[in-house]
Write a structure and sequence with these properties.
alpha+beta, Cytochrome p450, five-stranded mixed beta sheet, three-stranded mixed beta sheet, 12% strand
Length: 474
């Protein structure tokens, strides 16, 4: 061991919450509030500590600079947890999100191409049309005064957007029950979250009810997506000009597959990445929109300011009418950023060391699980002034001295480094267009203000009990 390494502490010397023999900290953890427990322990034990989940020791990191370096060092020094890749591979959709090494590089290029800005600009009319469907849907609730499960509604909106982007098919779950695939997608993330955090792979030996339901859901999802793929291939065979000007994600990856660069992009890769896009596009964007709506209710002064900005830009229209308008809503964008700072839908990022590495004075061996607490730096006073306060103003150039510091390196809703989220532009477009439409047309309030809106972790983090009532704008 070198002199440098010998001066470092080992993981065994790392602080952490006291656990029980064999099971470690398992009984101290509520999976739905796991991120909150980890953040609380970070406040107690510092920016690096360890927990034990059964026999596994997991290193937890909440230091912004270290997390940024870890994310930039992928896929060499760090990678996603091997357990995640294995579990998703067992489920049959090991796409660009979970794959590693050469597999990831091969898929990333084609997925990024299909999600580039040129394709998003072409997709804008469908995004605007789906937003208009959502507006009319909420108008009906405004007339009846009926309570709305906001998470459900915006989830349906993002499903409708994503299926059109993915397949060019409008499943219209906002106005109908939609195809069976929409009903089955909701079963994936909760089981995935439980399996990732399970102390041993129980599902390989026996199945609970939720595991059996997932098995059936995955069969139905594969049949539906393979049907879309077959239809798309036939359409492109009948209309070869589509290869030069694809209009959706599926056409893009099939067109790329036919080129020399895309020859290694297999049919299984297409299925895996289409499903990954559906899952990621459904949960992450929808939950951010829901949290933003919650803050509009909580802070009427910011609601009024956002509304004035939208009015000035698009009146007399009821919603934005082109993609360029979305870049002219600085306060709406600041509001979205502040929402993502405080309510990051991905507050944790599970990694693993490919080789032994030094982390904050500790020597961490290869193959060690590492949890990056990616939200914690954004709610730490060393990175953001008055960190617990919801204040969109901090993202504008006119911020006051008491809003310092303002460390954007500690703001990681889309990650950073080589595996930066390729769907960021689409997500931000959806968030801004829905918030603009909501501000322009509606007032809203909580159905029951006495019920606390809580954070729930189900692979992504969502608001619990967010039931609202819409009314026409006063």
């Amino acid at each position: 061991m070198s002199a440098v390494v010998s001066n470092l502490k080992s993981v065994s010397e790392m602080k952490g919450p006291q656990g029980l023999p064999i099971i470690g900290n398992l009984l101290q953890v509520d999976i739905e509030k796991f991120h909150l427990q980890l953040e609380q322990w970070s406040n107690e034990y510092g920016p690096i500590y360890k927990i034990k989940m059964g026999p596994r020791e997991i290193v937890c990191i909440s230091d912004a600079e270290t997390i940024n370096q870890m994310l930039r060092d992928r896929p060499t020094t760090f990678r996603r947890r091997r357990s995640l890749e294995t579990i998703i591979d067992e489920m049959g959709f090991n796409g660009v999100f979970s794959s590693e090494g050469d597999d990831w590089k091969r898929q990333r290029k084609q997925v990024a191409l299909a999600l580039n800005s040129a394709h998003l600009h072409q997709f804008t009319p469908k995004l605007l049309a789906t937003t208009e469907t959502l507006r009319k849907h909420w108008l009906q609730y405004a007339e009846t005064g009926e309570s709305v499960d906001l998470c459900r509604d915006v989830m349906r909106y993002t499903v409708d957007v994503t299926t059109q982007l993915a397949f060019g098919v409008n499943v219209n779950t906002l106005e109908t029950d939609g195809p069976i695939i929409q009903q089955q997608l909701d079963k994936v993330f909760p089981v995935l979250a439980r399996r990732i955090n399970a102390p041993f792979p129980y599902w390989r030996y026996f199945r609970f009810k939720r595991d059996r339901e997932l098995d059936k859901a995955l069969i139905n999802i594969r049949e539906t997506i393979n049907g879309f793929i077959a239809d798309c291939r036939q359409r492109m065979a009948d209309n070869p000009e589509i290869h030069a000007a694809p209009t959706n994600f599926l056409e893009s990856v099939i067109a790329a597959q036919a080129t020399e660069d895309g020859a290694e992009f297999t049919n299984d890769d297409i299925y895996a990445n289409v499903l990954t896009l559906l899952l990621a596009g459904e949960d992450t964007t929808a939950n951010t929109i829901a949290w933003a709506a919650h803050y509009l209710i909580q802070y009427p002064e910011y609601f009024a300011r956002a509304r004035a900005e939208v009015d000035a830009l698009i009146a007399p229209e009821v919603s934005p009418t082109d993609y360029q308008q979305l870049s002219k809503l600085p306060f709406i964008e600041a509001f979205a950023n502040e929402t993502m700072r405080l309510k990051s839908i991905a507050p944790l990022n599970g990694l693993e060391t490919n080789e032994a590495v030094e982390l904050l004075g500790y020597w961490v061996p290869a193959n060690t699980p590492v949890l990056a607490l990616t939200r914690h730096p954004a709610i730490d006073k060393s990175n953001f002034g008055e960190p617990a306060r919801f204040n969109p103003e901090r993202w504008l150039k006119t911020q006051s001295p008491n809003q310092c510091p303002h460390n954007t390196q500690a703001f990681l809703p889309f990650g950073t480094g080589p595996r930066f989220c390729p769907g960021r532009n689409l997500a931000l477009a959806e968030i801004k267009i829905v918030l603009a439409m909501l501000c322009r047309n509606f007032d809203l309030r909580l159905t029951n203000p006495d019920i606390k809106i809580e954070e729930k972790l189900s692979f992504t983090m969502l608001p619990k009990h967010l039931d609202v009532k819409f009314s026409r704008r006063a």
